[in-house]
Design a protein that fits this description.
With 71 residues, this protein is an alpha+beta fold. The protein contains three helices and two strands, in the order H-E-H-E-H. The longest helix has 16 residues.
Length: 71
């Protein structure tokens, strides 16, 4: 979707900060092992990305979303 926005093929998308979900799952496992209550619902941050966003902003969001998983 981000590539489509950069190419002008898509006007808008909502971008999930993917690595935040992985962090939350790790925390939930830790809390479960510690006997603490574990949330049943989690929603990380989202960012609205539009065709008017600069390539630099889109790249910064991409780096933030995949800061641990994308090397």
């Amino acid at each position: 979707e981000l590539d489509a926005i950069l190419k002008g093929e898509l006007d808008i998308t909502v971008m999930r900060m993917n690595d935040d979900t992985g962090i939350a799952m790790a925390e939930a496992i830790k809390w479960g092992l510690e006997g603490k209550p574990v949330p049943t619902v989690y929603s990380g941050d989202f960012e609205v990305v539009t065709k008017s966003d600069s390539p630099e902003r889109i790249e910064a969001l991409r780096k933030r979303a995949f800061r641990y998983s994308d090397n």
